[in-house]
Amino acid sequence: MTEAGVHGERYEARIARAIAHVEAHPDEPLTLERVAAIACLSAYHFHRVFRALTGESLRSFAERRRLERAILLSRRGQSWKVASASCGFASPASFARAFRRVYGVPPSAFDREAWWDARPDRTEVEAVSAFFLRPAPPLDPDFAVTLEQRPAARLAAARVWGGYLAPGKLVAAYQSLRAWADEQGLETRGGRIVGASRDDPDLTPLSRCRYDFMIELPDGLNPPPRFSVAERDAGLWAVTRVKGDLAAVDRAWSSLFKSWLPASGLDLRDAPAEEAYLQLPEDIGWDAFDLECRVPVADPPDGGHHA
């Protein structure tokens, strides 16, 4: 469903706004009426539109995202009890029931590698990501990372669902955003256009993975109905530059997350990492990359910069 709703706002933007609310408030009670109101739709129409665009109900989506977040928090050292409470589950028992329903085992018995081996889209996902299965690479002393404070920003976002399975959708979304930015006289080179995966393909079914192409909006400029508006909080970012093919980009992300970040002592912030395109596909094609990998990190407790 892509037809325009009232006031010309398309359904994709409305659903993106509703999803942003759900993900920003994982510990709040979820009601269809409340989330539908955020999307400016009736509960009946919201249910139909949400399922048509995402392939699942609001309840299933919210439960899956809360479980994925709980797994992430457990990997950062939180107990299942603490992680489940922070993700909005009313009790350890309700969390265990939901976990077993989605992953087939209780949380205490969850083996991520075994689950990954049994996932129905394993063949496809192996071509995209097996990030968690790879050991941390040795930290190259020449692997350069800078820490940068970036201000809060509003961004126009072109969202793609299932782009890993249909790369043409990713190209079309990028081209649509780039064309609009050019029409508005916005600078697009030098890292102004960024990409962000909203889901972890190692956990999320590829058909439900979201990828956003985004560009910062100057004050007073609103995007057309086919784009949504995203908010980026002010904060600290760890940044490294990579030039090369897709394998080089993959190595940079692996080094940044698995080697440099643990050695730095910094914690991740709850925000998506970004790829900032220093050179655009129009300049170097779709098989070569010149970009910055940007990871949102928390300010160090002492206020200093960590290696």
TrEMBL record:
Residues 16-113 form the HTH araC/xylS-type domain. This is AraC family transcriptional regulator. Keywords: Transcription, Transcription regulation. InterPro entries: AraC_E-bd, GyrI-like, Homeodomain-like_sf, HTH_AraC, Reg_factor_effector_dom_sf, SmbC-like. GO terms for molecular function: DNA-binding transcription factor activity; sequence-specific DNA binding. It holds the Pfam family GyrI-like. SMART domains: AraC_E_bind (SM00871), HTH_ARAC (SM00342).
